[in-house]
Amino acid sequence: MKLEFINALEEIQREKGVSKEILLEAIEAALISSYKRNFGSSQNVRVNIEEETGEIQVYSQKEVVEVVEDDTQEISLEEAKTKHPNYEIGDVVEEEVTPRNFGRIAAQTAKQVVVQRIREAERGVVYEEYVNRASDIITGTISRVSKGMVFVDLGKTEGILEPNEQVPTEEYIHNQRIKAYILEVKRTTKGPQILLSRSHPGLVKRLFELEVPEIHDGVVEVLGISREAGYRSKLAVNTMDENVDPVGACVGHKGSRVQRIVEELNGEKMDIIKYSEDPKEFITAALSPSKVVKVMTSEKDKAARVIVPDYQLSLAIGKEGQNARLAAKLTGWKIDIKSESQHKEAGSPFFGEEESLEIGEEVEASETAVAEENLIEEENLVTEDVGIEEDLGDLPGESTETDEETAEQDPEEKE
């Protein structure tokens, strides 16, 4: 290990970004261990590598004491003074003990250390690159599927899609290209571990940011997402720009933007609604594509009772309660859905607390006119009709109903 080795370290420093000084320190530490292992020495030693020439020297180190108890670690003051008269108690005496064939051992050790340090440096670079991309979206290729785990080749490293982050309706095939959400980046001894997700709501948000320039530029904000991966997602959007329709911007011309996202998510349905600070309006919109007659809210309990036409009850609740569940998650309100008939039969105030009952203002319904005489008159309560916003499910690519839901149509329409 001569001058050529030092030049090689400098080249590594330029190409890999690993400091020559750090490499030399690591090599010196490794050579100490190698010396003790190969020459059966238990004494303290120091290894010195000349940065200019690459020459290596090994020095034993002994502390100067009055009475020697361990001659591998200590030396008497009298013996120390024979080496140099200025030694005192507590000083350390160094003596070169470099073996003749130590150069070969040093070369092998140095090679191992350098390779290891380069790997660590490269892992560090990869970690720093991906740790800053947490909560972002990334594209990769499925390299293998093993024991329920999906491994995704990301180029410089590999990502892991664990079973609980996979979508139950998706099939993962070797060499398939997929987009995934970077859930977490961990530093491990084997390099960075990148945990991915296909079921996280953040994936939907990032896909909309890629497809909708208004969201990317901050003109349209995504204020909430509720998702049941593989089946349906609800997105609440808003804008401060009066000239921009936030829902229309997300849907795109003839549904082109939302359709690309639906295709990426393998047919997962999308409901895009406009956010409102009025909880009644927000809850009404969140239950899209169903129609709503009335919304009653209890601020105290943060709960709402929603009255829908009889023929819309199953649509409002959704298959296995999915639509109502997603609406509740999106709005943050507990939602109890009743048909007009059920509400009329109950004939009692909301949750039995008249003082907590609030009913929204009358607005003209966009699809079906709600007759005032069909609404329930409850004693000591102010009852007013609540209109509904335009059925967002009618927008192309925005929301699609199941066969079971579409079968239940307005009786007036049938006639």
TrEMBL record:
Q: Which GO terms describe its cellular component?
A: cytosol
Q: Where is the S1 motif domain?
A: 135-199
GO MF terms held by the record: DNA-binding transcription factor activity; RNA binding
Q: Its Gene Ontology biological processes? A: DNA-templated transcription termination; transcription antitermination
Keywords (alphabetical) are: Cytoplasm, RNA-binding, Transcription, Transcription antitermination, Transcription regulation, Transcription termination
Enumerate the subcellular locations listed in this protein's record, separating them with semicolons: Cytoplasm
Give a single Pfam family match: NusA_N
- Ranges of compositional bias, category Acidic residues: 352-365, 374-393, 400-415
Query: Which superkingdom?
Result: Bacteria
Region (Disordered) spans which residues? 342-415
Function text:
Participates in both transcription termination and antitermination.
Similarity comment: Belongs to the NusA family.
Q: How does it assemble?
A: Monomer. Binds directly to the core enzyme of the DNA-dependent RNA polymerase and to nascent RNA.
Q: What is this protein called?
A: Transcription termination/antitermination protein NusA
